[in-house]
Design brief:
Elements: E1 2-5, H1 9-21, E2 24-30, E3 33-39, E4 45-52, E5 58-60, E6 64-69, H2 70-77, E7 86-91, E8 94-100, E9 104-110, E10 128-133, H3 134-145, E11 150-156, E12 159-165, E13 169-174, E14 179-183, E15 186-191, H4 192-202, E16 207-212, E17 218-223, E18 228-233
Antiparallel strand pairs: 1-5, 1-7, 2-3, 2-6, 3-4, 4-18, 7-8, 8-9, 10-14, 10-16, 11-12, 11-15, 12-13, 16-17, 17-18
Length: 241
């Protein structure tokens, strides 16, 4: 296997997001491109990264599975500039990483055995779909984390509301002017510990798509021309608000 990215910045940022949720992962490389699917140790969140074959300037690979420590990979990728070509090449039980800078630099990352998690994003029925500015969503989530450890996503009277309540409260309201809202009235609560990690992924593109329903998992999709990130987060179901 040998693949080359002319601009690895999105790949590097995506790996950083994944490393916040899981320590180790299986990178799948096949005729379609590169992908990672992983579930966090608490079984609360799932994340999927897809990079199509077209994103690579060079792509020589059959079906490959690479067991990787994501924290180690993240630290190596941080050494790579945004416009510095990056080559990933498998050699036996190592992943060789070449940073094609003015001075060519080489790293060798030991491949590891990672428990198999061959799961796809489940197909769920959602009553709400929101397409929103990523920066607006990030601001709303950052407001909520000041006052609580969880927030609610609410559809009410045709609007989308992000609300957190503790001793204090925070609330952001979006109408159809600020977001594309295709939704029925519903409400679901989610952990801000996870949402704030997801927001690092949201910053990779201008728009984020949210899908949810009453006490349903949240599906969050971030897509650019060269990368796709999908998150799934279990709801926090409580008897009292």
């Amino acid at each position: 296997m040998l693949v080359k990215l002319e601009d690895p910045s999105l790949f590097s940022k995506a790996i950083e997001v994944l490393s916040e949720l899981v320590t180790e992962a299986r990178i799948k490389v096949n005729e379609f491109g590169m992908s990672i699917a992983a579930i966090d140790p608490a079984n609360v969140a799932m994340v999927m990264l897809k990079i199509p074959k077209s994103a690579f300037s060079q792509f020589e690979a059959e079906n490959e599975i690479l067991g990787i420590n994501l924290d180690s990979l993240k630290r190596i990728l941080r050494r790579c500039g945004s416009r510095t070509p990056l080559i990933l090449e498998r050699k036996e039980n190592f992943l060789n990483i070449q940073i094609m800078d003015r001075i060519k630099r080489n790293f060798s990352l030991n491949l590891i055995e990672v428990e198999r998690q061959e799961k796809e994003m489940p197909t769920l029925d959602y009553s709400s779909r929101i397409e929103i500015s990523s920066s607006d969503l990030v601001s709303a989530i950052e407001d909520c984390i000041i006052v609580s450890d969880a927030c609610s996503f609410i559809i009410s009277q045709g609007g989308f509301i992000v609300e957190a309540k503790g001793l204090n409260s925070a609330r952001s309201e979006f109408s159809g002017d600020e977001a594309k809202i295709e939704a029925e009235e519903c409400k679901s609560k989610y952990s801000l510990e996870y949402l704030i990690k997801f927001m690092k992924g949201a910053k990779l593109c201008e728009k984020t798509i949210l899908q949810f329903a009453n006490d349903h998992p949240l599906k969050m999709d971030i897509k650019t021309e060269h990368i796709e990130l999908n998150f799934l987060l279990a709801p926090r179901v409580e008897t009292e608000d």
